[in-house]
Amino acid sequence: MTYTLYGAKGSGSSIIEAALLEIGAAYAFKPVDMRHDAQREGEYTSINPHQKIPTLVTPESETLTESAAIVLTLAERHPQAGLLPPAASPERARALRWLLFAAAELYPVIEIVDYPERFSPDEAARAGVRERANEIWRRRWLTVEANAIDEGPCVLGHTFCATDIYLAVLSRWNLANDWRSEHLPRVDRLANEVAARPKLRQLWARSFPGK
Ligand SMILES: N[C@@H](CCC(=O)N[C@@H](CS)C(=O)NCC(=O)O)C(=O)O
């Protein structure tokens, strides 16, 4: 019963790795060298035709892509890990709301920041495209800060769930530590809570040193 996770240090695969660690599932990690665009070459493109990471292959050889779908699938396959509250509960609705906000409204902005050339054929316009994406990124994080966490430390108060992992990982990307601590204290507290979880400490330290 071993999963295979394709990913890169500190990337979206950290969300999936953290979920697997919380579950206590066995997995093999296959690094994909994003610095050399290995996600767009060779064998990997037949595993994930969208040419992105993460990809998770289940012990039954089912290929899963899309980080939110992977997290939800893992939560369903391993209910004992408590990654999500019970189906149809208000807590589940809240957890899904902010998980999907992170997946649909936050995560895609990073592609614009990292690859502005995909969004503008005009080389001279790319710095502006990136700056606008950075502004959108910060604004959407302010929405999370003001609405997703309440008293905290987690999205569901003192009850940890998969949404906390997802938000914590994304919050380590593309935000200066001092801007984050000034403007996103609740998000930082949530990330610290995730980082301190006994099963996640090592992953966090090697994935996000100094963050
Ligand atoms: N919607 C995808 C987004 C995945 C994604 O953008 N992954 C980034 C790494 S964190 C990636 O592979 N970037 C490389 C590229 O876009 O070429 C998901 O949620 O899994």
Q: How would you characterize this protein structure?
A:
With 211 residues, this protein is an alpha+beta fold. The protein has 9 helices and 4 strands. The protein has a 4-stranded mixed beta sheet, covered by helices on one side. 32% of the residues are buried. The mean pLDDT is 97. Residues 11-12, 34, 39, 51-54, 66-68, 103, 107, 111 line the site of glutathione (GSH).
Briefly summarize what is shown.
By secondary structure, the protein is α+β, with helices and mostly antiparallel strands. The protein contains 9 helices and 4 strands.
- Helix-strand pattern: EHEHEEHHHHHHH
Q: What level of helicity do the residues show? A: 40-55%
Computed Rg:
17 Å
| Total count of strands | 4
Any chance you could write out the topology, listing elements then pairs?
Layout: E1 2-7, H1 13-23, E2 26-31, H2 42-47, E3 55-57, E4 63-65, H3 67-77, H4 90-114, H5 126-147, H6 162-170, H7 177-183, H8 185-195, H9 201-207
Parallel strand pairs: 1-2
Antiparallel strand pairs: 1-3, 3-4
Helix pairs in contact: 1-3, 1-6, 4-5, 4-6, 6-8
The protein binds glutathione.
Can you give keywords for this protein?
Glutathione S-transferase Yfyf (Class Pi), Chain A, domain 2, Glutaredoxin, 211 residues, globular, 2 domains, binds glutathione, alpha+beta, 4 strands, 9 helices, four-stranded mixed β-sheet
